[in-house]
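Field reference: sequence -> structure
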Amino acid sequence: MTTAQGYVLISPCRDEADYMRQTLDTVVAQSVLPARWIIVDDGSTDATPQILAEYAAKHPWITVVTRQNRGHRAVGPGVIDAFYAGYQTINPQEFEFVCKLDLDLRLPSRYFEILMERMHANPRIATCSGKAYVEQGGRLVNEGHGDETSLGMTKFYRVNAFAAMGGFVREVMWDGIDCHRCRMMGLIACSWDEPELRFVHLRPMGSSQQSIYTGRMRHGFGQYFMGTGFLYIFASALKKIPEKPYLLGAAYMLWGWLKSALQGKPRYNDLEFRHFLQAYQWRALWVGKRRAVEEIDQRTG
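Structure field:
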């Protein structure tokens, strides 16, 4: 029986020719290289296949999986479907860690080395990441993700924890549900804002192939699906008002939740999870996210 070693990257992508070389080059330059990198071309129509073939020819640990063109970019369930198209080509137990990695990022050189060091130091950490920054006016601006989540564009997981929580849900809020489910299991989901873990997100958070407003509406629906209560989404929308596109972005996010509720759309079919989530959210409204998460960690640790 062989011991699981190293990490495997799985990257769903579609039409990423404008960004992907920066991701590819910064992964190739990592201080600790991945054991495997499975890149799933989800029906690209630009130069993505040619670029992938170029890198795969140079680096034998890169494998390209090609899926049929569905005619459009799919977010949420479509991205996770593409992730699993790559995941099913490997034996996860051969690796200690697995990471869903987007191809619109620029990573610092010791990124994965440091994440593995942190996880070896604390066996309770199930998933972690650094922090995302965007380039605006010649400077880097923090996208504003909380410390209680690993970021969806670089979901770095302990393989056994990923299997134990049942993997990713194939819905828009997959990257929130997983972190809360980890906490339900007494594990930790987290991210750190430190110079060596700050990466550049080349496509703005909350945007979509249509507009940032569509992205905010989608986020509102995702929060509704996950089980978020009205007071919590209302408070979240208020917090978003000072962020571009200012008031309208917050309004679209809130409307995404309200419209889903008015239409009676289905919610995540796990009542225990939704009760856990809403109890956490109520506590977070009173004492803040950090304190609410610390209380869960102390209770379940």
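Note: Residues 7-201 form a domain with the Spore Coat Polysaccharide Biosynthesis Protein SpsA; Chain A fold (CATH 3.90.550.10).
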